[in-house]
Amino acid sequence: MNKLICIALLTFGTVSCKNNVKENQNEVIITAYATNDLKNSKKKTKDVEIVFCLDATGSMSGLIGTAKEKIWDIVSELAQSGDVDNLKLGMVFYRDRGDGFVTKQISLTTDLDQVYSDLLKINAAGGGDTPESVNQALHEAISDMKWSTKANTYRTIFVVGDCPPHMDYQDDVKYTESCKQAAKKGITINTIKLGTSCKSAIYHFKQMANCTNGEFMQLDQNASDIVIATPYDDEIYKVSQSIDNSRMYYGNETEQAVNYNKKAKSMEVYEKSTKTSNSARADYKMSKSGRKSWMGDKEIISDYAEGKIDLEEIAEDELPKELKGKSKTVLKTELEKLTKERKKKEKQLIELSEKRKQFIKEKKKELSSDKASFSEKVVDVLKKQAEKKQ
């Protein structure tokens, strides 16, 4: 089958949609206008929420592969480009009725390692005919995800694929209705048509984008991208893995169980991802939003370094298992040492990431390609729209 990605991000202000519906042979004409209830606000973008809706049918292997390799580059580029406090990511994978599944969701969350871990489990399969359950995927992305209602937030959805939505399913929520709901929530829908087959998809994808003043693009069938390995990837892998491995959590039994499970998900990323994608992950983790979500809640080294905890008030049974049985004096000495070690590694990681970015920049000059890659196109749209919403 053919590919389709849906990215959802929080956007600044609200967008209204006026729906002039003219249905003729499955054609729907949509006109849109934008209203910004924060037009007098001088606040900068603070939060971002992203949901990818990916067609996971058999012919989507190129798209799924690109998502697995480049998602960290996309969020890193966005996080580094502006003042982003919190970045959430979610996904909706879809096929069609009669396939192994119609849709699968990954909830919108700041825990990007959890999202990535679930993404790595997805493979392209099924399909074999057209159209696809685009309508259902878009509806779920808009209605099921827990979008923030904060004013200083950028929201968007990217629908990416090559096949049109089923307009013949009587019990489906059509994209014309979903677009109106997106507008009410201040979500901008962008669409990318992949490949040259299923030309009828172009019309529908354009209409989806038009309703919320989003962008429509056409790219190659495989959502091709550029992957550049660098001499710094191995060292970045080692340093970032060491930082992740040093994470220790305090709190009650339930809190520790939840946080150590998150740590386990992070460690899985090293086993299952490529060195190049891990380098992009490390770059994101050192951004403002990445740092906030990297360690999570009640990580004792980071909380101690930031002065958030009083060691005298932490009960023995609430200490991390690695630090139990130590006197308060020894515990303080140990945490001072661990804090210094982590800061040293973080500094090293920043330096390595900068060298990596410079290496990639020079290599791209050598390639001198006039065609922007899939991830570059997505990042360009995100940056442009986020800037307008400030």
Automatic annotation (TrEMBL):
The protein's matches in Gene3D superfamilies, at most eight in alphabetical order, are given as: von Willebrand factor, type A domain
The alphabetical list of record keywords is: Coiled coil, Secreted, Signal
Q: In terms of domain of life, where is this protein from?
A: Bacteria
Question: Is Transmembrane helix tagged as a keyword?
Answer: no
| SUPFAM superfamilies from the UniProt entry | vWA-like (SSF53300)
GO cellular component terms, alphabetically, are: cytoplasm
Domain VWFA: residue ranges:
49-243
Nucleotide-binding: is it a keyword of this entry? Answer: no
Coiled-coil region(s): 328-370
Listed GO molecular functions? protein serine/threonine kinase activity
- Spell out the subcellular localization from the entry: Secreted
This protein is called: von Willebrand factor type A domain-containing protein
